[in-house]
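[Meeting: bench + compute handoff]

Bench side (C.D.) handed over the final construct sequence. Compute side (W.E.) agreed to return the predicted structure before the next meeting so the bench team could plan truncations. Sequence as handed over:
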Amino acid sequence: LADLLHIQEHVRLITNRDTKATLKVVAADAATVSGKKASRVLVDELWLFGKKANADSMLREAAGGQVSRPEGYTLYLTTQSDEPPAGVFKEKLAYARDVRDGKVVDKEFLPVLYEFPEEMLANDEHLNPANFYITNPNLGRSVSQSWLEAQFRKIENAEDGTKQVFYAKHLNVEIGVGLRHDAWIGAVYWAQAKAAVELWDGSLEGFLELVEVAVAGIDGGGLDDLFGLALLGRLKSDPRTWLMWNRAWAHLDVFERRKDIVSKLTDFMSERTLIKCVEPTQDLVEVADLLELVKDAGLFPAEAAIGLDPQGVAALVDELSGRGFTADQLVAVPQGFRLTGAIKGTERKLKDGTLKHAGQLLMNWCVGNAKVEPRGSAILITKQMSGVAKIDPLLAGFNAVQLMTRNPRTNTFEYTGI
């Protein structure tokens, strides 16, 4: 090969001495790939691009030279992501699955996916070492069965995200909720708590029809933070079961200052669980609109209907007061260790299946971001501990749980004539 190929490591270039064809390794950066006229492009570890805000435009730039080269093509190689899929990786993975499954016809796109069928995942057959070959086509060559089994034994009883990362990287199992070593225990049971479609389709309209009483939790932040809303309702057909519906708002400041999460925020916008605010008071007005819908449906109790983070909610209180909400309905929910009861109560109801959520990507992300710090017999989940990751809609959920534990009754009565 040394006689055939001329390797220039300092410029990351390999040249075929006979044909003069070149292979160049370039950095994943728009400024680097701009102007390239490559006829064949190989993108390695596409899942990493899902974390980049401008990845889609950068990949288009890299493959732009193929417009004038009919023989050109692009290869994408990747394992699953060590976090829930996001951005351009999520989009291309979904498209590849649709082409594979016949939902989309694209004769110029060939997906080769090594994944377990849904039935095998549901029955935990992917955990049987005898089935590891399904997602490891190079088994016995670049990776051995014995090595995979040894690694599997090490993480089999792990309680944190180590297990999920192994599943993603070696079994190509998509991560639903990202777990870390200091993850909130409720995150372990979050995925299984998604409401069955037969019970609830996850819509706000369905929520209002199914519950007998509702409370709301709100967690606001600065302009570079999310504004989180949670609606929590008690099911008419089974009052022991609660339904949770969430939404968040983000000002342009978040998109400008937090480039590292823009791709995720864009996914949530597509899901309609995150709204980008273009006006300074858009979040306050739209939250008030939603709360007014619940009030008009007669689902809010006369007291303790809306739980608020005491910090920075004056403008929202003014907005709600102007719409007929009473002071008794607006409650400041103490934060920090005082939320321990709500946090632990949420954990238990997630595990026993009496708290159902809409299965939103937004909440999967927020739940995976939550970090726990024990304080004696109390536990804390705060924005400070979760760092730059966003958890506001989850904290709003805890505020709502705090109110629902008071066993509220709707602000209506039936006239009997007595």
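W.E. noted at the follow-up: Residues 5-100 form one domain. C.D. will use this when planning the next construct.
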